[in-house]
Fold each of these.
Amino acid sequence: MKKGLIFIAFSTLFFSTMEIAIKLVATEFNPMQLNFLRFLIGSIVLSPLAICHLKGSGFSLDRSKVLYFLFSGFMCVVVSMTFFQMAIVYSQAATVAILFSCNAVFVIPFAHFFLKEKLTKLSILSLIISLVGMICIVNPENLTNPLGITLSLVAAVTFALYGIVGRKGSLKYGFDGVVQSSFSFLAGSIELLILILITKIGPVANWLQTIGLGEFSHIPVLQGISWSTVPTLIYLGVFVTGLGFSFYFLAMEATSASTASLVFFIKPALAPILALFILGESITMNVITGIILILGGSCIQLLSDHHQMKLERLAKAHS
């Protein structure tokens, strides 16, 4: 459990700076281009670790595993993270961080239905308190950007599904979070690159412009990379994408999907504070109230998992 909490801490730190780092270079890159670059870098950084983890395991790529990585990569990189990148363009970094963190609300019921993880009364209470905290931070009365909100919530739901897909793959095939992240990111990056290249085809580009999606025509691949953007790009690819997601899946393995989702309960409390110091985004009383509620909900979830693990140990001791 202690090792799992360390994984959660590192994942939370990297994920809480994700929207801020993206916002810093959002004007230099196309959203899909930046998505492709950071996940490609993340997969390359993780590949030596993934190969090391697979040595002596008897792992081999077959049709089933290839299809799995293609699907998980599509869910994460192509679908969820593309909506996420677009949301940051249309909303404040702190707002996107908070709304995207709602994926934790979906992870716990998804884990119950798809992974058969027990849904306790304390887990439900944690969900309710944390959700109220998120609503306080967002402050619905002042929401004036429905597009940014919608994109953030779609990204949240699809990322929650990706988390469950990743956990099921780990249980089925026996690989860890590093392998899961590395291969899925590589597959998703290849799929996204194919889509980017398709947008450069004349008839496709013209059609996208005709229907009002000119932003998605002629998407660049390397344009915008300069000495000023490289440090942020490296941080996004290596630390946020590579290490952040790996720690998240390692936390799932060391604890449970429900406990690992604490990353996204703490993130909306930490991200506004970081956005204040780095981007100068203000913190209101609503945000402070929400932070307190979210931290309280996180503590309840930890208590729930600790109690559940204690019951499981007692059951094993008497079996």
Amino acid sequence: MRAALRAAAVVAAAGAALLLAACATRVDLPTKDSGLRLRVQSSVIAPGNGGELITASALEPGDILLSSIATVNSFGIRLGTFSPVSHALLYLGDGLIAEAVGTGVRARPLADVVAEEQMVVAFRVPGLDDAGVAKLRTWANSQVGTRYNTTGVLLNAPFVLNRRLCELPLIPSSVSNFCISGMAMVQLGASRDDQFFCSQFVLEAYRQAGLPITAADPRWVSPADLLHMREGDVPSIAATQPLRYIGHLKYNAPPILAADGPS
């Protein structure tokens, strides 16, 4: 009897933890090789825990970089999205990246990013060919100087928190997707699509290249959403295909907060 009560308590505690975290889940049906399996969204990825350190030579044009920096702004984004990343960048090749920051869209050396950020992790979109790379780079370079989508970021902050109601444990993915879509159309309708915040810029670049990463509006997607689109994870917003993890260009322990920087 006690054993049964202990087991029930463990199940209840696990359920409560999932409910409080409100992270996306997925149920994999039994197969001939495995039984019923519940998968839970995970933000854990680091060298020594399913990850590896790489150098810039491992990157290819079009790779997506996700990063975090030791600033109050970055910490606030990570806390709000329950994620270790707060910024998304696009690798253009030849040691250059493009990104949308508070001053607008800019291109700069990858080496500067690695030097400044606390963590930089790379992912690859399968299927990007040379023609797609050319379109992606041309569009990204043409957007340098475009203004930052401040309105989109301000609207996205409450949306990220409110939509967690759509991600309660064991909610079917079809219901969750419908819930998130409906909430996004109501809460993000006033956001600009001719200005960009970081992950919106990355997703729009891929749309312009003819290889959209998701069918969702880029204004709905945060850097944390891109992280969860990786292979083996459970995405909150469905991807057309999982992103392939390449490795960490830099990884440090959780940072101590400093004054805000430009990211």
Amino acid sequence: MRILITNDDGINAPGLEVLTEIAQAIAGPKGEVWTVAPAFEQSGVGHCISYTHPMLIAKLGPRRFATEGSPADCVLAAIYDVLEGARPDLVLSGVNRGNNAAENTLYSGTIGGAMEAALQGIPAIALSQFMGPETNDLADPFEAARVHGADVVRALLDKGIWQAEADYRLFYNVNFPPVSGANVKGTRIAAQGFRRDTTFSADPHISPSGKRFLWIKGGPQHTPTQPGTDAAVNLEGYVSVTPMRADLTAHDVLAELEARFA
């Protein structure tokens, strides 16, 4: 199996090291693991692509490349340049430092990389490690992902629904709970949740030179979502697996909206 890995935390991020281990376990001794990741952190860029300017790409070692682009750029670079037409069998994006559950999903470059792979017709999984008080006290805050990541990916490859012929094919969003590897209770299939009463916001600051700057900041991450949804099951100690697709149509209101406009 040929696996491409990428992330949004950057080529030197510890989560990418964890993902490399996961990918190598899945690919096996006869497989290939290729890394194309951003040269610098690209958190929060979503599905952004460098459409209006070129990006530098550099080979750092065997099957290891860095670009000055987003995670989605990295997937495009791998498919159309690095691999020279030898498409990957699977794309893994992550392991993100911090959860990509609930509304975080919409901002995530980790999700953006997996989404681009799906749009290119390639099976893809995004993986993220929820952080919290328990992980902060661990020698390895990615322990849950490191211990359980390969098993979750294998289960998705074996039991997942992939819809290879769909125009907007499925990809998967996996979040590991903020606990030690031993305290992971299992895996739950979960819908994307929504954290009520918390949003991203802008925080103004004045620099020493008197100029006004804004920091974008997130809201509390341990606010539970509705029972059974992604962040809720993560906070209960479960790995969440959420099937996703890039089709943003609100299908549940199409018929009513058509009737109103008739």
Amino acid sequence: MAKPSRKDRTRPAELLILSAVMAIFTGLIVLMSTRDIVLSLIFVGIVFILVLVVLAMLVLAVRPDGDELHDLDEQDHPGGH
């Protein structure tokens, strides 16, 4: 069985980092406009989860290319049948 590439292994981390950056940005905007830390933390949590779910759904919507289909076929039939 082939090991996943570095890009495949780091993809979840990329989604988490992007979600965290967007959530922190939103939290800072809310904090600067309202000066309420609790409200800012609430928005950070909501935006983090929302962005993470939206990005995950977009990743699932992408159709695999020829190489990925070949790799999936190899994983389904390891004996070469």
